[in-house]
């Protein structure tokens, strides 16, 4: 689906029906509360392996990377999902939640993806390993449009310890969903975050400059 294409009427209606159903359940005092669904930004293939991934035998052949706490707009930095409605409004969904506060989820996913790459190893805080490169991520937009797409946009910064030169790249990633379900929007955010991790990894290893952003 073209990210700029408006959601079809059927998708608009299906998402509105989901929200309406949730509201009806909450208003019915005799009914049991709807179950909470938990989501993570960590890809399944990384969750199933050790966080450090496959690394060269000699530590001297690796670049150690430290990731600063991710900066996010306050309105989305929470466990509950904030989603954009078809009419342009927003809704806070108590029953759809990230496994941890969103800034922590993003940092965990980035750290796992970088540590899984050959030539990189994470330098956790509180250890004697001094990072060769410090990574900072400032996310200005983290938008969930169920039935349509996930969007993340912001800036990432690399600060190598060797020469003190700082490099910055702006990014915008848009990933289309395959259905109106909440699992589909979570999967879209996983793909967008994985693209961000890949771009940062390439930058740390000196393999590429700033990648082109998706169309707005």
In a few lines, what is going on in this structure?
The chain is α/β, with parallel strands linked by helices. Helix content is 28%, strand content 28%.
Give a structural overview.
The chain has helices at 9-27, 44-47, 102-115, 182-204; strands at 37-39, 63-67, 80-84, 90-98, 120-122, 133-145, 149-160, 167-176. The chain is of the alpha/beta class. It has a 5-stranded mixed beta sheet, with helices on one face. A hairpin with a 5-residue loop joins strand 3 (80-84) and strand 4 (90-98). The longest helix is centred in the last third of the chain and has 23 residues, at 182-204. The two termini are 15 Å apart. 31% of the residues are buried. The model is unreliable at 1-5, 23-27 and 50-59 (pLDDT under 50).
């Amino acid at each position: 689906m073209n990210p700029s294409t408006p959601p079809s009427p059927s998708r608009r209606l299906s998402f509105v029906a989901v929200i309406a159903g949730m509201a009806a359940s909450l208003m019915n005092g005799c009914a049991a509360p709807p179950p909470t669904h938990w989501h993570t930004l960590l890809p399944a293939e990384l969750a199933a392996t050790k966080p450090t991934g496959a690394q060269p035998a000699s530590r001297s052949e690796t670049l150690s990377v430290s990731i600063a706490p991710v900066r996010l707009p306050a309105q989305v930095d929470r466990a509950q999902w904030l989603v954009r409605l078809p009419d342009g409004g927003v809704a806070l969904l108590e029953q759809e939640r990230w496994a941890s506060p969103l800034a922590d989820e993003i940092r965990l996913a980035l750290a796992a993806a970088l540590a899984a790459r050959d030539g990189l190893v994470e330098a956790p805080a509180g250890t004697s390993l001094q990072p060769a490169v410090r990574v900072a991520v400032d996310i200005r937009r983290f938008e969930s449009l169920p039935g349509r797409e996930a969007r993340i946009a912001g800036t990432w910064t690399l600060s190598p310890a060797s020469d003190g030169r700082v490099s910055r790249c702006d990014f915008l990633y848009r990933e289309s969903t395959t259905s109106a379900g909440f699992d589909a929007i979570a999967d879209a955010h996983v793909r967008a975050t994985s693209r961000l991790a890949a771009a940062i990894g390439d930058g740390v290893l000196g393999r590429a400059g700033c990648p082109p952003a998706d169309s707005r």
